[in-house]
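Example protein as discussed:

>
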Amino acid sequence: MRIVFATNNAHKLQEIRQILGQDYEVLSLSDIGCHEDIPETSDTIEGNALQKAQYVFDHYHIPCFADDTGLEVDALGGEPGIYSARYAGEGHDSEANMRKLLAKLGENNNRKARFRTCIALLTIDDEGTLHQQLFEGIVNGNIIREKRGDTGFGYDPIFVPEGYQQTFAQMGPEEKNRISHRARAVAKLISHLKNT
């Protein structure tokens, strides 16, 4: 099955392709010639995912899913949330984002946090009816005080999932893909795709 994943993020694309396996040909935005900066103006993770999927569907008429992910830190009132990728500015600089997060947390002992991914799927049935579904994946964990590990991306070096000693960045991709927020949302997506 051919389906568009509304992203050009190589890390996300690789992760999703590994999780989905051979049954799906997952196309990126650049694969379908979409080079626009898709708006993300919603104030929720769900809204941003849906907005991206809707944009691609409206312009390219291909079954599509889009995700939005946020890191939500309890002591910071849920920050960075929808601003996770550009927390320290529009440059999408992971190092700067982590520095800002650690600085804002300071010596606070409440390090509880969660990664939350929402996937919006838009498909059209044989009668031409548009269907939309939302799938959520959450991983609870803690923010550590200094970076550990050099795989993964984003906030992976400072996030230790509940029940583990290693950060996401210390795990191999196979282990992370088994337990990550994105993996949990994708598992729901796959289950839905296989049952329809």
User: Anything to note?
Assistant: The chain has a mean pLDDT of 92. DSSP finds five helices and seven strands in the chain.
